[in-house]
Structure formats: structure tokens, C-alpha cells
Design goal:
The chain is of the alpha/beta class. The protein has 2 domains: 170 residues, NAD(P)-binding Rossmann-like Domain (Rossmann fold); 164 residues, Rossmann fold, CATH 3.40.50. The protein is built from 12 helices and 19 strands. The strands form 4 sheets. It has an 8-stranded mixed beta sheet with strand order 3-2-1-4-5-6-18-19, with helices on both faces. β10, α7 and β11 form a beta-alpha-beta unit. α1 packs parallel to α10 and α5 runs antiparallel to α10. The longest helix has 20 residues. The radius of gyration is 22 Å and the shape is globular. It binds nicotinamide-adenine-dinucleotide (NAD). The site of nicotinamide-adenine-dinucleotide has 28 residues, from α5 and α6.
Length: 375
């Protein structure tokens, strides 16, 4: 069994695995091949991978064509799919609801494609949950980026020259990223408030020492997996009305609101941006899925009326080494779960609850019910 880790392309800084996770694979008896310079952006040399038992490949094409499993972080270029070995497994983030051509190409090429964003949220799969492992680090990085951009200190300081007031941070959306953003802003000494449409998070917000903002928007629902359901237009308006004042008083607003399989809800209007003090900062963590903030742009710092709107699409990449560490661990945990150490093969049953959730294509067809319904 051979597993190949091609180097990520474009602006990606993260590496799919680090050497200590590569060693775990080789300890299982799996042959690990990494593309040369896989870890160069996180200062991990090829020699360190070799020490962990991996082989270095200088021919991406030939390694793609011989590997039984190919793992990456980002979705592949469609042109590389036909180069994969028939019946091999490809694991990465895939964005399968928007990437119909990619899904069809996987199916046509007889590849078993696994989408990391569709790993179900059940206890057994938590160790494989890359959305959470990356969102957690993104929440941290968003606060650090905001604090660097804000021309004010986060903590209160009492000095001989007078008292500096703490920064006020408002976090909208309290899932994995939002919780880490709250915890990080609190650690830095800010005064933190937060809102989510799921009232169950109130206790979690309070347990971190932040204030939960109550806004009456009527009935809200969440899915079995804990995802928020989409609000009606009227509910969004009620939410905006309820948040106006808090936004105008905040030095930093961090938005993380997402609705599974749908574009992100537009919550912060330009009017709300303009009501903020000049010098304030907004981080729109939902920028890649349509954005929570009017005017935010992917990978841009937008200046609007003195307010900086940050739209970084790869916040985990700001802490790339840790992000690589936990992503690789998620992959290892997934593969180990199905590894049979006697036969040295993967025991893949599509009836398995985790695989039923995240396998998109198999043996020439689209097998995932959610994705099939969207094709
Ligand atoms: P997410 O990324 O889908 O969304 C982020 C947050 O935005 C969510 O808390 C959501 O309720 C909120 N949101 C949606 N619309 C909003 C709006 N209009 N205004 C304000 N907030 C809005 O969520 P997530 O981080 O993936 O987590 C969702 C839940 O699932 C959390 O409670 C999390 O703890 C839970 N979870 C469970 C598991 C598991 O394995 N059991 C794994 C990961 C997450």
C-alpha cells in the first residue's frame, strides 16, 4: 500500500503532513511518498521526512499514477484526476456542492474521492474532523490579525500616564472558530461579547468569560449535526437591528457565521460598517463562502470609511505548522480507522457511517446522497 502526498500549489503554506505523522504511517507498514519540498514553507526539509521513513518523489506525475491513496489539503486541479491510478483513493477538501465538474471527473476516472468537509459530526469521527481542526486555528489567527491591525491595545493598562481602556471585541457566530476567537480575545485582555442564532451556545460563551448578546429573532433551528439552519430574510433584519449598537461600540468585529451547504448569511451591512469608529477592524471569516460583511473581499484588506475589513481566506495558513500538524493527524486517524494490520489493506465498507458521509465517488459513480441530490 502506497500513499502519496503531493506538494500543495498556489499560495498554500500548509503541508499535508509533517514527519512525525509520516512515521506513524510507515509504522503501520504503509509506504509513504512525499513530493520534494512538501514541507519547505513550514521549514521542514526533505531529510526530515526521509528520517521518518518516507521516500521523496521528484516526479509528481509518476507518483500520482502509482499511489493507492493520494492525500492533499486543497481540491486538486481537474487536469490531475485522469493521472491517478484507477480505483485509488483521493482525500482532500473538495467543496463538492460547488465543484460538479471535479466530482464528475473523479467518478469518470474510477477514483474513490473523499471530501474532508463532509466527515460527519459523530463522536467516532471527531479525530478525523479537519473542518474543526482548521477552524479552531483560524479563530485564533483571526484575533491575532485583528489585534495587529487595530491601533489600540487589547488589554486594559493602568499606567502612570493614565488608563488605557480594553478593546471591545464582538464575535458573531459561535461555532468552533468563534469559540476559539472568544478564548483568544479574552486571553489578550479584551472585553468580549458574542452572538449566535443557536441559543445553546450561551453557556459556552459565558464559560469563557464573555457576554452573550441576546437578540430575539424568533424560532431558530439546528440540524442533527449541530449546524445552524438558514434564517429567513425577516429574521436576518431583526438580527441586524439587534446588532447595530454593539457593532458601533466595538473596536473589533469577528464574523464566523456559516450555514452548511449554503452561502454565508450577509449580516453586517455597509451602514453598520459605517457606524463603527474609524480605526476599527472587522475580520470576515466567512469571506470564502460569500461573506458575512458587505464589502469584504477574498484575500483583501478593504478600507471603508476608516474601518478595515479583513477577508483572509486561509487563516489556518497563518499558523501553518500547527495547521499542518493537526490536518495530517486527521488524515492518519481516518486511514488508521480502516487499516487492517493483518492483510495490510484498507477495509472500506461504504455502509460505514463515516464513509457514507464523506465518500463522494466510488467505482465510477457518485455515491454520496447529499452530493448526488445537488448534481
Ligand atoms: P459553522 O462553521 O457551520 O458556523 C459557525 C457558526 O455560525 C455556528 O455556530 C452557527 O450557528 C453560526 N451562525 C449561522 N448563522 C448565523 C447568523 N445568522 N448569525 C450568527 N451566527 C450564525 O459551525 P461549526 O463551527 O462547524 O460548529 C457548529 C456546531 O457543531 C458547534 O456547536 C460545534 O461545537 C459543533 N461541532 C460538533 C462536532 C462533533 O463532532 N460532534 C464537531 C464540530 C463541531
Amino acid at each position: 500500500m502506497q500513499i502519496f502526498f503531493p506538494k500543495e500549489e498556489g499560495q498554500e503554506i500548509r503541508a499535508t503532513i509533517l514527519p512525525d505523522v509520516a512515521k506513524k504511517f510507515t509504522d503501520l507498514g504503509i509506504e509513504v511518498v512525499v513530493e520534494s519540498n512538501l514541507g519547505s514553507e513550514v521549514f521542514v526539509s526533505d531529510e526530515l521526512y526521509v528520517e521518518s521513513g518516507a521516500t521523496i518523489s521528484s516526479s509528481r506525475e509518476s507518483s500520482l499514477s502509482t499511489a493507492d491513496i493520494v492525500c492533499r489539503i486543497n481540491k486538486p486541479d481537474i487536469s490531475e484526476i485522469s493521472k491517478l491510478k484507477t480505483n485509488s483513493i483521493h482525500i482532500s477538501f473538495l467543496d463538492p456542492f460547488n465543484e460538479k465538474d471535479l466530482v464528475n471527473e473523479f467518478s469518470k476516472s474510477n477514483i474513490t474521492a473523499i471530501s474532508m468537509e463532509l466527515v460527519p459530526r459523530i463522536t467516532r469521527a471527531q479525530k478525523m474532523d479537519a473542518l474543526s481542526s482548521q477552524a479552531n486555528l483560524a479563530g485564533y489567527a483571526a484575533v491575532i490579525e485583528a489585534s495587529r491591525t487595530l491601533s489600540k491595545s487589547f488589554p486594559m493598562m493602568m499606567t502612570a500616564a493614565g488608563t488605557i481602556s480594553p478593546s471591545r471585541v464582538f464575535v458573531i457566530g459561535v461555532g468552533v472558530a468563534g469559540l476559539q476567537a472568544i478564548a483568544t480575545a479574552k486571553r489578550l485582555g479584551a472585553r468580549v461579547e458574542a452572538f449566535d442564532t443557536r441559543p445553546v451556545v450561551e453557556e459556552q460563551v459565558k464559560s469563557l468569560g464573555a457576554k452573550f448578546v441576546k437578540i430575539d429573532i424568533g424560532e431558530t433551528e439546528e440540524t442533527e449535526q449541530g449546524y445552524a439552519k438558514e434564517l429567513t430574510e425577516e429574521q436576518i433584519k431583526m438580527q441586524q437591528e439587534g446588532m447595530k449598537k454593539i457593532c458601533s461600540q466595538s473596536d473589533v468585529v469577528i464574523t464566523t457565521a456559516q450555514v452548511f451547504g449554503r452561502p454565508a448569511p450577509r449580516i453586517v451591512t455597509q451602514e453598520m460598517v459605517h457606524s463603527m469608529k474609524p480605526g476599527s477592524v472587522i475580520v470576515d471569516m466567512a469571506v470564502s463562502t460569500g461573506g458575512n460583511v458587505e464589502g469584504s473581499m477574498v484575500d483583501e484588506y478593504v478600507f471603508d470609511n476608516g474601518v478595515t475589513i479583513i477577508g483572509m481566506s486561509n487563516l489556518p495558513g497563518e499558523v501553518a505548522k500547527d495547521a499542518s500538524q493537526v490536518y495530517g493527524a486527521n488524515l492518519f486517524n481516518m486511514i488508521e480507522e480502516y487499516w487492517d494490520s493483518d492483510s495490510k489493506e484498507l477495509k472500506f465498507e461504504l455502509s460505514d457511517e463515516v464513509l457514507k458521509g464523506c465518500v463522494i465517488t466510488h467505482e465510477g459513480s457518485v455515491v454520496n446522497e447529499l452530493v448526488k441530490g445537488n448534481m
